[in-house]
Amino acid sequence: MPNSAIPKVSSTASPTSHKHTKSSKKPAAPDVITPAKIAWQTDDAGNQAPVSGEFGDVYFSHADGLAESRHVFLAHNNLPERLANLADKQCFTIAELGFGTGLNFLATWQLWRELREQQPHLANARLHFITTEKYPIPLADLTQILSLWAQRAPDLAELIDELLANYPPLIAGCHRLNFIADNITLDIWLGDAGASLASLATFDNLNNGSAIKRPYIDAWFLDGFAPSCNESLWAESIFAQMQRLSRAGTTAATYSCAGIVKRGLQAHGFSIKKVKGFGRKREMLTAVMAGSADSLPDSLAQNDDNNICVSPHPHDHIPSHTVVIGAGVAGLLTAWTLANRGMTVTIVDKVAPLAGASGNPRALLAPNMTPIHHVYEHLHSIGYLYSGKLYRYFNQQAALQQMPLILEQTGTLDLLIKTNIGTAQIADYPDEMATTITAEEARQLSGLNIQDLTDNLYLPKSGLINPQALKTLILKHPNITYQQLSVTNIQEKADKVTVTGDKKSGGASDNNSQTPATICADNVVICAAYESHQLDNRIVKCRTIRGQLSWFTPTTEQIARLPKLPLKYSGYCAPFIGQHGDAEINYINEGQPQFLLGASFVDADASIDIREEENQQNYDKLLEDIPELSSVLPDDTSAWQARAGVRTQTIDYHPLVGRLAQSRRIWTLSAMGAKGYALAPICAEVLADMMLGCFAPLSAVMLARLSPNRARLHKAQKATI
Question: 385: domain CATH number?
Fold first, then answer.
């Protein structure tokens, strides 16, 4: 049956995008992803099965793709036994070449879910599935393909729905999908497989004198198209990366017995064995990385079914308790991420949660865009995509607890007044991430009537973060405790680290009474913004940038004429409604409309006093960029509310994420500038991966840029002393 005879799954986005027409002769940028072209054939059971338009090969066996996944990759990597034998908090890592339709991942996810239901000791164990794809299937096609599998295998329907709901936009780089209820992480690396594998950091070049636990792949799914169709996925460079990322006991399985595959595996440390194939395939290959070139260890013997039996690899001590110093957005997200990995976390702050720059009434979640050929290494884009997914998960948890939304997904309109990207470059992005809408649609969305809105950037999944609601939800995590503590000393020893400080001991009327307190833990993470270097001088002293945000309660008449959604110009503005909890640290009336604008920018200023002249600056900046609001905004800003905070920034604008030099137990996550709510979630994932010896969702190049020990920062600091 031709492709056109099969009903297509389509979705209509609102508003309608009007991307600039792209020339078919325009060469693809180096890191621009080319979506797969899908053709269709009839399989052995009369069902429609997808075929790659690029390579002319099937995505899975015509006999039964799901049974093929279970036979080739699950059984012949001995996953049922190996996963069942994981220890508490242990992480098992699978790497796949060729994500395709996601069927291998779905089969693995289903097995993992079944094992966790049967084995209570797996409650805190984790499964990390890393996959690569150069030609990813567009969401509409993937929905069509997997809906057919949901009919054939109804037990997969729920997992299929979750995968499709989280399927990423097709841009280059790593997309981390956390399926939190099942303790499973899926990293989809879009782009050339060799480059993606080379990007996986083993932290060898990031230590700077400290021994970060090295991550390894435990099992490989070699599921690229046949070598006769796509030699590049079976090239020597691929096998070299497999060798780099494996250790003794790492297994591999593939449907192929081609000579190029056998030779490649053997030349790179794997011992291979032919076993019975699936369906029409008479044979397939299994392989295991030997401990030496001479022989396999006894634990790697073959069982009666020719499945590779591998005992769980000895794992290092997994930390159980971490102290996080600082309860701003960096500290809160670090604590939650570690707690979500099964760790006990104590958060301490000298004042209170969100007492610093993270405590604004609302934070705008919207990236600073970059041309798409830079997106692979663009932390703002990577962070935006991941944090949006995480905050939407938090929304689900908040709804269960009848709490305010964490992320109000309003969409954001960027007027492109202060940006590094134009509409022609926006056109390269998938519409679901960023697009340009018609001027009429922009007027309807924004409420602006006079402004020239021809050139714009619309971010449909952007919105406003409620910091108070986020704080409340995070502090409810059963693995997290908070206490007020002014840290005076951090002492690291071989087996632990001790945090000493002063805490209030008197009642509410006795503000000066302090009592010494000590906390012992496996690790400490310093998230104290610009004060971090005062706690450990190995952390560079960062730039301080004061920012004051302003807001007021508009009248009914003003509400009708003010912007209807967040706008970015040389600053940003946004309407919102006060929610329960907002008044805890800011002057906001619950249930009342508010209009937020700002923020000021004062370099080398760490004062947080409220300044009327900065309210005026915020007013002037808005009217300069959007003059038609001059007849709407009140002339007198003296009655406006405001909050001042201090942004912390490095000289190269990248955050500090990682373990400190010459330390085993002291880490930092800080210096995210004005993008803490976008960057903290992905940076916290990176830090947790480093701490627990897992592969991070950022490239080795990016991790080096984030290292708190990077030479550029320390050379610059020495030069100023």
Answer: 3.50.50.60
